[in-house]
Design goal:
This protein has 359 residues and is mainly β. It has helices at residues 2-23, 26-30, 206-223, and strands at residues 42-46, 51-54, 60-64, 78-82, 85-86, 89-93, 99-104, 113-118, 134-140, 156-160, 164-168, 172-173, 176-179, 184-185, 196-197, 201-203, 229-230, 239-240, 243-246, 254-256, 258-263, 268-272, 276-278, 288-293, 301-305, 309-311, 316-323, 327-329, 334-341, 346-349, 352-353. The protein has three helices and 31 strands. The strands form six sheets. The chain has a nine-stranded parallel beta sheet, with helices on one face. It is globular.
Length: 359
């Protein structure tokens, strides 16, 4: 009798174990794509393999099938070679662990075949490396693409860094609004505020991080543009042709009082050592305006600001502001362009922000 009872207990235990095994993670039993035992794979890349005409400001990304260990995603496991020359840059992984981004330290060489590689030194969160190294190639455009601003991130009308992107009043942004590494966006419909956008909000996510990386690349490209005619302290009342313009350490700041005319279709780059400030006006009476004449387009105007930028009340401005620190759009200022801050905040007050198409 005792043996019979023991046998029944073992049978029940066996049946219970079988049921529990059937209820466990199916990937663990079937070797599915997210199984702890399955090697990670690269499921998509940008630029796509065999792409041609790639702009020199492009970021290179690889998306994995499963979350990766951040400690294994670095410049040793995600490499880029221009022809036969290693391209310097930095590598980051998004918060989900799925998208790795290679940000070149300088614009890519034009008319050059580039090879990107994910090595078997990369590993998922379970310690599995890819079964084999993954490579893809693309070729950059024969000539530099218009402007220093590459395609990723150009949809952001507003991009801040820290501590906040803020708004009061009925601001409208015809594009995306984001911030990284901070996560605070206030005064928009996202938080019940009066501000509206036509794009998406990105707070401390991988998209905002990639946009900040692209901003750094664009900022450095603009700052390093050769040549440059020296500007007066205030360029209101002037007419400028396409080209590179700059302030100097002797006169580091730039003001715009009255009308500035940018005349001609081409690239305008303004290298400003310190601050950019436009004059304050009144409703219907702007004291500072930037006019685009002769085919000039706001998407091809870039203001690289070494410190902070302030658009005065009811001023009308054109172009992409790339500021090292803060950007302030005071009451009623109109921005036909973008406001993107590398390390500081972006503050708005009842501003139309009309985002141009990507260069």
């Amino acid at each position: 009798m005792l043996k019979f009872k023991i046998s029944k207990i073992w049978i029940l235990a066996f049946l219970l174990a079988a049921v529990m095994a059937g209820c466990s993670d199916p990937d663990k039993n079937t070797g599915g794509p997210t199984s702890p035992l399955t090697p990670p794979t690269v499921i998509s890349v940008f630029p796509a393999g065999a792409s041609t005409g790639v702009c020199q400001g492009t970021l290179i990304t690889a998306t994995f099938s499963k979350a990766m260990n951040p400690a294994t995603i670095n410049t040793g496991t995600f490499t880029l070679v221009a022809g036969t020359t290693p391209a310097p840059g930095k590598v980051s992984l998004d918060s989900a662990g799925l998208v790795a981004t290679f940000t070149p330290s300088s614009p890519l060489a034009v008319n050059t075949a580039h090879t990107a590689t994910i090595t078997t030194g990369a590993a998922d969160t379970f310690g599995n490396p890819p079964a084999a190294a993954f490579q893809w190639m693309f070729t950059t455009n024969p000539t530099p693409c218009p402007g220093p601003f590459g395609l990723p991130g150009c949809g952001f009308g507003i991009l801040g860094a820290t501590p906040v992107v803020s708004n009061v009043g009925p601001t409208n942004v015809t594009g995306d609004v984001g911030i990284f590494p901070a996560a605070s966006i206030t005064g928009f419909s996202l938080t019940g505020g009066p501000g509206t956008i036509t794009g998406a909000f990105h707070a401390a996510d991988g998209v905002a991080q990639a946009a900040q990386d692209q901003l750094t690349l664009a900022y450095n490209a603009a700052a390093g543009a050769p040549g440059g005619a020296v500007l007066t302290a205030d360029i209101g009342g002037q007419t400028l042709a396409p080209g590179v313009y700059k302030t100097t350490s002797a006169q580091p700041s730039l003001g715009i009082t009255g009308d500035l005319h940018l005349n001609g279709n081409g690239i305008y780059i303004f290298q400003i050592v310190s601050t950019l400030t436009t004059a304050a006006g009144a409703p219907g009476l702007p004291a500072s305006q930037v006019f685009l004449d002769g085919g000039a387009q706001s998407k091809n105007v870039f203001w690289q600001v070494g410190s902070s930028a302030t658009l005065g009340t009811y001023s009308i401005f054109a172009g992409t502001i790339m500021a090292q620190a803060d950007i302030t759009l005071t009451t009623g200022a109109v921005l036909n362009g973008r406001a993107q801050a590398r390390t500081g905040k972006v503050a708005m007050d009842s501003n139309p922000v009309n985002v141009p198409s990507c260069p």
